[in-house]
Amino acid sequence: MKFDTVIIGGGLAGLVAGISLQREGRGTAIVSTGQNALHFFSGTFESLTEAPQRMTDLFGEAGIRLHYRPGVRLMPMGTFRESALSLEDVDLFPSPEFARKVLIVNFMGYHDFFSSFLAEGLEKQGMQCRIRLINLPEMDKLEQSPSEMRSVQIARTMDRIWEKVVQEVRVLLKDEDAVLLPQVFGLQDTAVPGRIRQGIPARVVFAGTLPPSVPGIRTQMLLKRRYEVLGGTYLMGDEALNAHVHEGVVHSIVTKNLDNHYLEADHFILASGGFFSKGLRSNPFNITEPVFGLDVEYNQDRNAWYDKAFSADQPYMQYGVKTDETLHGLSDGKPFKNLYAIGSILGGTRPELGSGAGLAVRSAFAAADVILSEAKNLE
Ligand SMILES: Cc1cc2nc3c(=O)[nH]c(=O)nc-3n(C[C@H](O)[C@H](O)[C@H](O)COP(=O)(O)OP(=O)(O)OC[C@H]3O[C@@H](n4cnc5c(N)ncnc54)[C@H](O)[C@@H]3O)c2cc1C
User: Fold this and answer.
1) What pLDDT digit, counting tens, does each position of 244-272 carry?
2) Backbone angles phi and psi of 51, in degrees to 5
C-alpha cells in the first residue's frame, strides 16, 4: 500500500498533521495502536494563549470550538490553574465575585467526581458550597458494575437524559449563583452542554472528573471523523514495528497486522507520543525510540532521570527524540531525509513550539508545512 505520507500515532499531533495534509489533497494513512493522551485531556491546550487562525479553522471544521480568556480553571481535585486555550465547554472558574454560593451536583454511585475536594477548594476562595446527589433510575444498570460507572459510559446515558438532569437541578437549586456538574455531557451531541446552561437559572460550570476525559475523547472522535471525511485512512489498533531504510530515506514500515504488506510512502511522520504511549521505551540502562531507532536526548546517569520530590518537574519529561530544525529525525546525528518527529515524542525544550498540547499542534503544522513545501518543490 502506497501513500503520500504515513503517520505513526493517531493522537492529537498525528491527527492534526493528517488533517492538514489531507486538506491539501495529500493521501495519508495513520497507524495507531490505541489509547492516547487525549483520553486524559483536561480540555486546555498548554502553552497556547490564543489559537492560530489555522487551528481555529481546522478544529472548527471538525466541529470543535475553542476559546481563550485569561483567568483560572478549577481542577478535578479542587485546586486552581492558570487557563490556556481551551475547548469551548471548559469553564474558567470562578473568582469570588463570580459566585458567592455554589451548588455542587453529582450522581448517585458515581465516584470519579470529587465533590468534597471541589467544595474545599471553592470554600478556600470564599464561596459557600452545598453538595447534593441526584438519583437517576437510568443509571441503575450502570451501577450494577463499578467498571461501567465511568465517565464515558455515564456520558452516553446523559446525552439522552440531560433534560431530566436539568429538571432535578432546578428542584435542588435554592439561592446559589452557580451550579457545578461533572463534565460528562456532550460526548456524542455537542449541543447538550449549551442546552443545560440554558435550562438552569444559574451559571453552570462543568468540572473535570477522573479519566477518561469526556471532552478529550470527544475531541479525538471529532478529529478522527474529520480526517476520515477528508479521505484519510486510519488503521486503528495496528502497530508500526520497524522500517525499511536505505541511505537515510525511509521506504516503508512494517506493521503488526499487515503481515508482509508494507506501508510505503514518500514521507513518514512519527507521532507516537512519549513514555505514556510507548513512543519512547526505557529500561534501567537506556531510553530508545523503537520503530526507527532515532537518537534520543537523555541523561546517561540513570539517577538523574527523576527528582525524588514527587511534585517537582521531572527531568525525564524533557527526554525525547532529537531532530534537526525542520523536525527531521536524527540517527547517529544524521537527519533522515523524509522522516519527521512531532508531538510529545520530541525531546528538549523548544520555545518556538511550546509544550503539552500546544507543542503537539504547532509541531504537527510545522511538519505538514515542510512536507507540502518539499512536495511543491518537486512538482
Ligand atoms: C496523561 C496525560 C494527560 C495530558 N493532559 C494534557 C492536557 O490536559 N493539556 C495539555 O496541554 N497537554 C496534556 N498532556 C500532554 C500531551 O502530551 C499532549 O497534550 C498531546 O495530547 C500529546 O499528543 P501526541 O499525539 O504527541 O501523543 P499521544 O497522545 O501520546 O499519541 C501517541 C499515539 O501513538 C500511538 N503509538 C505509539 N507507538 C506506536 C506504534 N509503534 N505504532 C502505532 N501507534 C503507536 C499510541 O498508541 C498513541 O495513540 C497530557 C499528557 C499525558 C500523558
Assistant:
1) 999 999 999 999 999 888 999 999 999 99
2) -95, 125
Q: Are 71 and 45 in contact (CB under 8 A)?
A: no
Q: Could you tell me which CATH number the domain at 2-61+217-378 has?
A: 3.50.50.60
Give residue-wise pLDDT tens across range 72-96.
888 888 888 888 899 988 877 766 5
The CA 36 to ligand 1 mean position distance, Å, reads 5
As given in the structure block, the three cell numbers for residue 365 are 503544522
The CATH fold of domain 93-211: Rossmann fold (3.40.50)
Closest CA to 83 of 120, 124, 48: 48
Q: What is the 3-state secondary structure (H, E, C) of 90-121?
A: CCCCCCCCCCCEEEEEEECCCCCCCHHHHHHH
Q: Of the residues 262, 272, 323, which should be mutated to test ligand 1's pocket, given the most ligand atoms within 8 Å of the CB?
A: 272
Those residues whose C-beta lies under 8 Å from the C-beta of residue 99, and which sit 6 or more positions away, are 127, 176, 177, 178, 203
Question: pTM surpassing 0.85?
Answer: yes
* 41 CA closest ligand 1 atom index: 8
Amino acid in the structure at residue 92? L
H helices of 24-74, where? Answer: 53-61
Domain boundaries, the chain: 2-61+217-378, 93-211
Residue 344 CA to ligand 1 centre (angstroms): 6
Count of H-run helices and E-run strands, the chain: 8, 21
DSSP state of 202: S
Q: What is the 3-state secondary structure (H, E, C) of 278-296?
A: CCCEECCCCEECCCCCCCE
Beta bridge partners of 31: 8, 235
DSSP-derived secondary structure for 70-84: SSEEE-TTS-EEE--
d(CA 292, CA 28): 19
Greater confidence (336 vs 78) lies with: 336
Q: What confidence score (pLDDT) does residue 378 get?
A: 73
The residue whose CA has the least distance to atom 37 of ligand 1 is 272
Ligand 1 geometric centre to CA of 345 (Å): 8
Task: For residue 12, report the distance from its CA to the centre of ligand 1, in Å.
Answer: 7
